[in-house]
Design a protein that fits this description.
This protein has about 220 residues and is mostly helical. About 85% of the residues lie in helices and about 0% in strands. The longest helix is centred in the last third of the chain and has 58 residues, at about 165-220.
Length: about 220
């Protein structure tokens, strides 16, 4: 009997079903880490853009100059900048139309910002459902592999004349590796999901506040 109980040996000796479970969990783990690094970078950029934009916005400059700065720098607008562009562009367009009331101008601008806000939040929420799914299902998938492996181990003992711990231990160890891989995939996904969800909620709150504050400024301009 081979006494090698290293992880790689246990994986190689596991049954086909258990190996398939392990493969699924490893793929899920790799995809999770890919999403985690990408989402971390995306949210870091979104917060940086928000900080810089709010500093420029509340500096008291002309809104048209801020609009030109964002749209003429040769870079793609992001996050809160897109919300501002949508509102300012719609307000400017309606301001040039004769016979439009001040309230209609502001309402159209607010509607445009709300639409862009929804798009930004949808984009920020991308990949979060996947992390939640991996975090909630990976332990159960790993447990399925464990149960299957233990069941095969005891089934192989039915033909043995004398059952010993040495005969059962390798099979059980092989099966428990599936549970370990399941937890390895689930724990980072759960931690990342909770952290990213909190950060997205914070961004959402800041976007909502900006829309409300910008609407107030537009109301003042519309009635000026």
């Amino acid at each position: 009997m081979n006494n090698d109980l290293s992880i790689f040996y246990l994986i190689s000796q596991a049954s086909l079903v258990v190996q398939l479970v392990m493969l699924i969990l490893l793929v899920a783990s790799v995809m999770s880490w890919t999403f985690i690094f990408a989402k971390r970078k995306e949210l870091k950029k979104a917060f940086k853009v928000t900080e810089e934009f709010e500093a420029d916005f509340w500096a008291g400059g002309d809104l048209s100059q801020l609009y030109n700065k964002i749209t003429e720098e040769g870079r793609e607008a992001a996050g809160i900048e897109k919300i501002f562009i949508a509102g300012y562009k719609e307000f400017s367009r309606m301001h040039k139309v004769a016979g439009v009331s001040a309230s209609d101008k502001v309402e159209n601008a607010q509607r445009a910002m709300r639409i862009e806000l929804s798009r930004e939040l949808d984009r920020l929420d991308e990949s979060l459902p996947f992390l939640a799914t991996v975090g909630s299902t990976s332990p159960y998938v790993g447990l399925f592999g464990t149960v299957w492996g233990i069941m095969n181990s005891f089934r192989s003992l039915s033909s043995a004349k004398q059952a010993t711990l040495a005969q059962v231990a390798p099979g059980i160890a092989e099966a428990l590796v599936a549970t370990a891989i399941g937890l390895f995939a689930a724990i980072p996904a759960v931690v990342a999901y909770n952290r990213f969800s909190t950060r997205v909620d914070r961004l959402s709150g800041r976007y909502e506040i900006f829309v409300d504050e910008f609407v107030v400024l537009l109301q003042r301009q519309a009635h000026a």
